Amino acid sequence: xxxxxxxxxxxxxxxxxxxxxxxxxxxxxxxxxxxxxxxxxxxxxxxxxxxxxxxxxxxxxxxxxxxxxxxxxxxxxxxxxxxxxxxxxxxxxxxxxxxxxxxxxxxxxxxxxxxxxxxxxxxxxxxxxxxxxxxxxxxxxxxxxxx
Length: 147
Description:
Layout (H helix, E strand, L loop, with lengths): L3 E4 L3 H13 L6 E4 L2 H8 L13 E4 L8 H10 L8 E5 L4 H9 L4 E4 L5 H17 L13
């Protein structure tokens, strides 16, 4: 089953998101990688990700050590084989240059990542409601809509 790919270097943030995801009726599993290098290895099925399935959606942290989210996004959107995968930037940054730059690089959405707690829960629920209930994904990645 095609997963949602979570690219997040912060263990507390990733663990909180994974706990929230387990309580939601997500139609896809969540797979986490810890940085941009692993995200690209996953997407290009390199190394330990040779059998990785193409994600239906990517939730991408912006500021990570090594290869950052903007570089991952630019690489993905420059590749005709991968550019149709929706990418949501999930960052605690509200800097205009981060938001504008992410959209300029092809992000499909930019969500502010709140602190772990009720606001993170609300943001995850909004993400779920939009991307897995209201939105339609590209045909090659389509999931059955919920009734």
